[in-house]
Amino acid sequence: MITPAPVCWLFCTVIDNFGDIGVSWRLANMLHQELGWQVHLWLDHEAALRALCPHLSPIPCTEQHIHLHHWQAGSHAQDLDSTPAPQIVIETFACDLPPSVLALIRQHRALWLNWEYLSAEDWAEAMHGKPSPQADGYPKYFWLMGFSERSGGLLREQHYPQQLTKSHLASLRSSLALPTQNQTEWLLFGYASPIWATWLHTWQQYPQPITLLLAGKPIIESLRQAQCIPAHALQHAGDHYSIQHIRLIHLPFVPQNQFDALLHLVDGAIIRGEDSFVRAQLAGKPFLWHIYPQDEMAHLDKLHAFWQKAYTVFPPEIRAAHQTLSDELNGVHTLNTAQRLQAWHTLQQHFSTWQHSSQTWQQHLFQQASAMEKLAKFIEHR
């Protein structure tokens, strides 16, 4: 007799365009592919998922074996009556489940997880896997991904790293209409900020030619508002614009399943969001993290907690220069041009060491159990 696959209900509220849905979509696929679960994903922003999956049919639908439905946080979820009863319910990032879903969790005695934002902070490791009893005593468990064995692990595929051949990367470069790489190339995927105009001026003063692949519109709009580029420049995906020895390219949006390959194309990256942040680490690439800004600079605790762990594999000169730029990128302080140039020069002068440190951190992460391995063990011992 064939045992039916466990049914998992997964709920996502999209706040940061691609961050929330990026994690939820990768999580949904890994729950199906690696644990064999039947996954139903409810989301409230179809266009955000469509950007990650360009061939997505209108929801409700099934995409890559994931059953997709509409919902509104705290209000209602569609298709509950026609969806198999859940053994597991996952709310991502403490989204507000409707009363109808809360009732079904209790009716079917489902395992209820609050899959929270990734964090390297000590409190997150201490809270991971702990129950949070509700008013009626029903347990909801915290799942907190992180970077140590005490955490909930990372969304790392069982067969990562996949072998990306030179022909695969060449094909991606061709499909994105990127020129042959003949100079340093960085991927920039960040939030709107005046920092981009400031850093562009710094790169102009640094003698090394560089190509900046600009993902999404926020950075381009920031440069346009600061009058660093004319109004007509970089309007469309694939457009190029050069300023002295700086080449700017408006990168077409890359589906999630091609993002790893994109990271392997470039020398380094400035990335935003949680999913991209993790993928840069798994790729072993030098990077800076443009963390999602929060009120009262609350994001800085999370930023510094992560780098405090990662910096353990960085030599002092790389650590100091990197932290100087990372803190300016995320609003801790403002550097003068000489300080910024010196920090960037240090990182470029020791770039091979920076690469080696990034790969050492990558191997540290590979030695730990993944989030899927930890989840399977958590359920087994529950």
Model description:
With 382 residues, the protein is an alpha/beta fold. The protein has 2 domains: 7-158 and 369-380; 166-295 and 302-366, 3-Layer(aba) Sandwich (Rossmann fold), CATH 3.40.50.2000. Helix content is 40%, strand content 19%. It has 14 helices and 15 strands. The two termini are 25 Å apart. The model has no long low-confidence stretch (mean pLDDT 94).
Number of domains: 2
CATH class of the largest domain: Alpha Beta
**First-residue to last-residue Cα separation:** 25 Å
Proportion of beta-strand residues: 15-25%
Q: How does the major sheet shape up? A: 9 strands, mixed
CATH fold title of the largest domain: Rossmann fold
Q: Mean pLDDT score, rounded?
A: 94
Please estimate the helix content: 25-40%
Low-confidence stretches: none
Radius of gyration equals 22 Å
Number of continuous helical runs = 14
Q: Could you say what the CATH architecture of the largest domain is?
A: 3-Layer(aba) Sandwich
Overall shape: it is globular
Query: Which class do the helix and strand fractions yield?
Result: alpha/beta
How many beta-strand runs?
Answer: 15
Q: Sketch the topology as an H/E string, one letter per element.
A: EHEHEEEEHEHEEHEHEHEEHEHEHHHHH
For CATH, the homologous superfamily of the largest domain is named as Glycogen Phosphorylase B
